[in-house]
Amino acid sequence: MQPGSPDHEWREDCAPRRVLEIFSSKWTSMILHVLHTRLDGCARTGVLLRSLPGISKKMLTQTLRDMEAAGLVTRRVYGTVPPAVDYSLTPLGTRFVEPIDLLYSWARDNADALDALVGKNRV
After folding, report:
1. What is the fold, at CATH topology level, of the domain defined by 11-122?
2. How far apart (Å, rounded) are the C-alpha atoms in residues 11 and 13?
3. CA 76 to CA 63: how far, in whole Å?
4. How far is Cα 53 from Cα 31, in angstroms, rounded to an integer?
5. pLDDT digits (tens, 9 = 90+) for 22-33
6. What is the radius of gyration, based on Cα positions, of the chain?
7. Integer Cα distance of 61 and 115 in angstroms
């Protein structure tokens, strides 16, 4: 959006706000990124849990439910004992990976600035 852009571009349901709503959980972007870049777009819950250090099983489950409701992943349950469940990126989820990858690449390229920012906030 440019300075002086029309008011309708800033309304509460505008596209940028909807994107931020989807990514209000830090784990959403990380799950999408890991599914796409490390797990070939599909993984079982346990594999995802091991691939995301720091996430609890409860948080992973809740985030995956939210992502499924948003249409970013699909959940498939297998009729085995015990039941197996896997999650796959939807076409929409795959479309979200591109901007996430750009952001993560930018973060890696600017790690020094991010480290300085974190150091400032600790003082």
Report:
1. Arc Repressor Mutant, subunit A (1.10.10)
2. 6
3. 16
4. 11
5. 878 889 999 999
6. 17
7. 30
